[in-house]
Amino acid sequence: MKVSIIGASGYTGIELVRILLNHKHVEIDKVVSNSNKGTKFSELFPNVRNIFDKEFIGTDNLETDLKESEYIFLAVPHKAAMEYVPTLLKMGKKIIDLSADFRLKDKDIYEKWYNEKHIASEYLEEAVYGIPELNREKIKNARLIANPGCYPTTIILGLAPLLKNNLIDTKMIISDSKSGVSGAGKKCNTTTHFSETNENIKAYGIASHRHTPEIEEQLSYLANEDIYINFTPHLIPMTRGMLSTIYVNLKENIDIKEIYDLYNNFYKNEKFVRIIENGAVETKNVRGTNYIDISIIKDERTNRLIVLSAIDNLTKGASGQAVQNFNIMSNNYEMEGLNFISPLP
Length: 345
Known about the structure:
- By secondary structure, the chain is an alpha/beta fold.
- The chain has 2 domains: 125 residues, 3-Layer(aba) Sandwich (Rossmann fold), CATH 3.40.50.720; 162 residues, 2-Layer Sandwich (Dihydrodipicolinate Reductase, domain 2), CATH 3.30.360.10.
- The chain is built from 11 helices and 14 strands.
């Protein structure tokens, strides 16, 4: 099965290649990057030298160049994706979009938070939010997948069992989330220089991060009511990894064993969700994998739950989840190409 990657020269691009090279039923047809046109992929990413030496192509003749590719991964920034989607859909392609352009159903909300006019809003309703553990049936028949953001993945999956079962006060949800620097992308800027991030932790996007409306929209679907959260992301001095610590108040006094039984039952058929009952989760255990590890602690004094969820922001938080969606769309085994475990130590 031939697939192509537009925007393949970034971190999510190389992560897609790493995963797809491990996929038994995929041939990477084209890697697309205007800024690297004519350059071998392995010159930009030497870790695949003599393994994947295909040259980047540009976007000049996509209708011809992508003719044989059935699936297209869009590993491009927001705004760029909406420029490609109409043409690709008219070409009959199936699309997994890793940007934010089709995650929100309301055009006005997108334009408010991203400060960009949406030029392909007619596809917003059709786009399926690609969180497999919650939307698998819709994903199967979709033409356009809006791959979730990394922070939203940790929070949505961390809270889904509680919201679906109406167990928490929905007016008081707080998430303190931390990400490795690779979440900012490959492009260099002053905030991600080594000298700025090393030996430093800082909050950013406080009460204004663009993932907020995405998180709130999906949590609202789960709770069947409008949800608003306090979400504060932090940049930490590590390359990859993400951990969210989510604070919620229980409506009633429920034993922690019942809570774990609830989570284990809710995710009992999910290959990539691991419920950790013997301690707090750690990012090192999910590094380079498509797993999300979730643990729950109950503070008996306050009747509050502390939900912790850890992922690799580039894998389950981006490219791994994109391939998981691809597998569902193409009727492949869902774990195909994704059967990685984290290297330790």
